[in-house]
Amino acid sequence: MHDQSTESAKLTLKGTTYDLPVYSGTIGPDVIDIGKLYAEAGVFTFDPGYTSTGSCESSITYIDGEKGELLYRGYPIEQLAEKSHFLEVCYLLLYGELPTAAQMEDFETRVTNHTMLHEQLAYFFRGFRRDAHPMAVVCGAMGAMSAFYHDSTDINDPWQREVATIRMIAKMPTLVSWAYKYSIGQPFVYPNNSLDYASNFLNMCFSVPAAEYHVDPILSRAMDRIFTLHADHEQNASTSTVRLASSSGANPFACVAAGVACLWGPAHGGANEACLRMLREIGSVDRIPEYIKKAKDKDDPFRLMGFGHRVYKNFDPRAKVMKQSADEVLGLLGIENNPTLQVAKELERIALEDEYFVEKKLYPNVDFYSGIILDAMGFPTSMFTPIFALARTVGWISQWKEMLEDPKARIGRPRQLYTGAAFRDYTDVENR
Ligand code: SDX
Q1: Rounded to a whole number, what is the distance in angstroms from the first to the last CA of the chain?
Q2: Are strands 7-13 and 61-64 parallel, antiparallel or unpaired?
Q3: 399, 387, 395, 400: which is closest to 224 by C-alpha?
């Protein structure tokens, strides 16, 4: 973890100056440690959206928003997307180093042997309406897993933490595919241990008992790359939710269910579904100016979904890889003239020339092109965010693991600026 402070920041308040330690990381901005500020100065800091606040120390993922750089344990996302594969990226995020061949084989075997869900969970699914949003089902089913896997809920037992880790990475594809099958009234398909991770997921989603199904290697490679691009992303809203839930000692399945719930929002992981709906609503390139105008109108709540980011003030490197993948996959599928892809490319081109977007540094993010590929692969828009949750499970779990292994970790409990009523006595109803 960070070494001792190399310098300090001075804060002068009401005539008193306070020395606040400053820590430097490997790369990226220094941090000012305000942990003792309230005890020494009787004040809180105030940063509701955590725009300038570091919530923890981490060595997993690093983002340079100005350079448009994303590193998983130091490795750039572009190289991992091209040269690695998702389970290897899972190993890297979880354990900090790229695995040897033997380590990879062992990890893959452990994951493969945990892909089945407890059979009783199938009945849990059947309690939902068929038209329930798959994210509601995924959120519920993940939380319910703490009712089925009692032998891996003790967060103080390293072995149980490891079992829970493997179980969630292994079972999420089964759980997400069953949410999809349930929504379309088709029977659940069990995992096939002879298939790789991405192929197994596609097989559970698109095969039916009545016919032979062969996973298209183009689609499984694209699926695997989409998983890698979504795997982790520093202290984003859903990861921070998982960390905060876990700081109370809650079991891992409940914490990840909280992360799923947070990811669902359209400002976060729900943007991929909202973005494809927006692109379809725009429908043709000649209607783009109308929507650009809406996005710039302060009185219109409409935002260009898939655009903008709290950290990236330059391009999102994942969006660049995703755009290349969209061209490749749709080309190989013979649908490169997909109207939605054409609208997306023209919308990106026009927006990036518009001074509003340039001035506010709004670029396409990971959610802008992902939906186009998932749509081309045959997924309904309602499955886009569950797929994001599937991929992000390893990120949530890696951050959860790191936090539990940090001896300095304690329950998260922010304070506030109170602007409500001061002390007052109760007034009987007849006197109100
Ligand atoms: C993800 O944090 C992560 O790392 C998340 C993620 C991950 O991997 O975990 O990267 C995944 O969630 C990507 C983001 C997906 N969300 C969307 O695509 C939804 C559309 N984008 C926005 O709602 C917004 O850009 C956010 C939520 C992504 C970022 O919000 P911020 O940082 O709080 O920025 P803001 O809302 O304060 O916007 C700054 C300005 C505002 O204008 P002013 O009030 O300053 O005049 O930019 C404008 C906004 O109105 N703006 C947009 C816009 N996004 C911001 N205007 C039009 N269209 C947009 N998309």
Answers
A1: 57
A2: unpaired
A3: 387
- According to DSSP, the residues that pair with 18 across neighbouring strands are 11
What is the atom index within ligand 1 of the atom nearest the CA of 275? 18
386 lines ligand 1 (CB under 6 A): no
Cα distances from 221 to residues 91, 200, 234, 254, 374, in angstroms, run 18, 12, 25, 31, 12
Q: What is the pLDDT of residue 371?
A: 92
Other C-beta atoms lying within 10 Å of the C-beta of residue 278: 22
Calculate the alpha carbon distances from 384 to 66, 110, 308, 342 in Å: 28, 27, 19, 20
Looking at residue 3, what is its pLDDT? 58
Which two tokens mark 366? 């990971």
pTM above 0.85, yes or no: yes
Task: Look at residue 291 in the predicted model and tell me its pLDDT.
Answer: 94
Of all protein residues, the one whose alpha carbon is nearest to atom 56 of ligand 1 is 303
> Cα–chain-centroid distance for residue 57?
19
- Rounded distance between C-alpha atoms, residue 156 and residue 66, angstroms: 39
Strand, helix or coil at 430?
Answer: helix
Q: Quick one: pLDDT at residue 2?
A: 63
Which residues is 9 bridged to in the sheet?
A: 20
* Side chain identity at residue 146, one-letter code: S
The predicted structure's pLDDT at residue 231? 98
User: Which ranges of the chain have pLDDT less than 50?
Assistant: none
How far apart are the C-alpha atoms of 115 and 193, rounded to whole Å?
Answer: 8
CA dist., res. 380 & res. 214, Å (int)? 20
C-beta of 365 in contact with ligand 1 (< 6 A): yes
